[in-house]
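Please decode residue identities from the backbone states below.
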């Protein structure tokens, strides 16, 4: 009896395996962190083999602690940190280099050079993205240009590129012994190399980036019963289980939040913060710094598109206060520290550690704390750090409403930070709309599970998934409009202080 769908959620700081039942409840889970590698300022890397090892470990832990037989698992869905780039050897499975993480800014010279012909939006009409260090294409080019052994291997098809989803699927389905090399449309749409209309790699852009097509994975739907393959018997599951779902983490949360109608939006509060608005079958090009991306593609159904506002540093700012400054012992302590003061004391904290993402896309920006006086203590800094997430979300929401013409009536929220009452209340206050948390907060993993289960018939329709979605808590706005305007005006002034710090 197939009781469960397994979701592997490979994130920026950790890897999780979660088993979901038909009601969308997380029944068993395991999580392991992996190392964050900072070789020099602006560079962020992960060890791909460590990530694969952590994937092994969380699968083993879920099966063992839950006393689960693999035969009880109907299918597997994958979700992953997007844009993070790996190139590895097809024969040995050994990476040529560490994974270059989405936060990494080393490709700025490449992006600047490409922007000299056509500007930052040179490829936007085809791929929906500005030329910036965020995306995978410039990262692949950096490896090809700076690591001499990769280019000839890539041209012969021996070197394979993948985001983390491709890496894990390749290993789960056999690795060097016949592993399947695929990615789904949502992950492919984050490379700058996939044409939004054709849903295929764009040959003109590949030629411009000098990236051989042979190294790229085959692009498939986000939910498909035929194209992914099954787990190898010598892998962590020890048997053949179909892998039928694959979604980038933010698109997975869109599915997990059951945002299936145009105009529905969700915001995920994690390492970064990512708001997605379902735009249906329409490719809407943003005029206000948002990204046009794939929302999902289920089987043979038409692709669903989305507008996205990406914020680089939100939960990562809390981790920075914990790890770099030692202000708190664990991330959850941030709320109690913030509650030691009534407000931010007049300071703003703009965490432009790797530049500013939406709606600015300024790689020359760097983080600032402004408004400091002798009155300020660590409680004010903690509160300002939480408020930074809410202010950045407000900027994205304003841009999203202007681009789409849709006025949001509420915001569906998920991710690790939604348990922070101080943040969620301030978010509702500064937006002026209710913020809603679902019963199942693990919506990223749930979305990957939904994609896999739809492919196998574990769930029969989108209505099954809508039925599963239930409200846990709603935060209503309590701030008066004049105070909201005043505080947001101060934030915009603070953002200006971050710009032009890195000189060309």
């Amino acid at each position: 009896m197939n009781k469960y769908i397994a979701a592997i959620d490979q994130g920026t700081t950790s890897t999780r395996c979660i088993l979901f039942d038909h009601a969308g409840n997380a029944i068993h889970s395991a999580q392991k962190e992996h190392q964050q590698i900072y070789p020099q300022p602006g560079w962020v890397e992960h060890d791909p083999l460590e990530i694969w090892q952590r994937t092994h470990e969380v699968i083993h832990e879920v099966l063992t602690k839950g006393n689960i037989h693999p035969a009880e698992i109907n299918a597997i869905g994958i979700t992953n940190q997007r844009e993070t780039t790996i190139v590895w050897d097809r024969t040995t499975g050994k990476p040529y280099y560490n994974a270059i993480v989405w936060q990494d800014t080393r490709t700025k010279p490449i992006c600047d050079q490409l922007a000299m012909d056509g500007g930052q939006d040179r490829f936007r009409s085809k791929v929906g993205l500005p030329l910036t260090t965020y995306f995978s294409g410039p990262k692949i080019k950096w490896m090809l240009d700076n690591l001499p052994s990769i280019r000839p291997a890539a041209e012969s098809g021996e070197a394979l590129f993948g985001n983390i989803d491709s890496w894990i699927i390749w290993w789960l389905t056999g690795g060097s012994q016949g592993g399947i090399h695929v990615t789904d449309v949502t992950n492919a749409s984050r490379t700058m190399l996939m044409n939004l209309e054709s849903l295929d790699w764009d040959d003109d852009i590949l030629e411009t980036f000098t990236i051989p097509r042979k190294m790229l994975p085959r692009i498939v739907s986000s939910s498909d019963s035929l194209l992914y393959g099954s787990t190898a018997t010598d892998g962590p599951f020890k048997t053949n289980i179909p892998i039928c779902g694959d979604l980038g983490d933010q698109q997975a949360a869109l599915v997990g939040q059951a945002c299936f109608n145009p105009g529905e939006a969700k915001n995920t509060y994690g390492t970064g913060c990512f708001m997605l608005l379902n735009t249906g079958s329409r490719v809407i090009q943003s005029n206000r710094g948002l990204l046009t991306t794939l929302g999902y593609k289920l089987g043979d159904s038409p692709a669903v598109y989305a507008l996205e506002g990406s914020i680089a540093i939100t939960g990562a700012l809390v981790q920075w206060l914990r790890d770099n400054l030692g202000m708190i012992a664990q991330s959850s302590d941030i709320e109690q520290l913030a509650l030691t003061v009534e407000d931010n004391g007049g300071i703003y904290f703009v965490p432009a550690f790797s530049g500013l993402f939406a709606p600015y896309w300024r790689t020359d920006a760097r983080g600032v704390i402004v408004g400091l006086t002798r009155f300020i203590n660590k409680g004010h800094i903690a509160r300002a750090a939480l408020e930074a997430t809410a202010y950045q979300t407000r900027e994205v929401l304003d841009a999203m409403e202007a681009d789409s013409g849709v006025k949001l009536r509420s915001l569906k929220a998920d991710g690790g930070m939604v348990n922070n009452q101080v943040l969620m209340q301030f978010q509702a206050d500064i937006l002026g709309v209710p913020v809603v948390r679902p019963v199942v907060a693990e919506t990223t993993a749930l979305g990957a599970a939904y994609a896999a289960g739809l492919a196998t018939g574990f769930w029969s329709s989108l209505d099954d998934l809508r039925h599963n979605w239930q409200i846990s808590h709603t935060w209503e706005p309590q701030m008066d409009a004049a105070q909201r305007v005043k505080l947001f005006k101060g934030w915009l002034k603070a953002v200006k202080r971050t710009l032009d710090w890195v000189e060309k």
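Observation: The chain has a mean pLDDT of 92.
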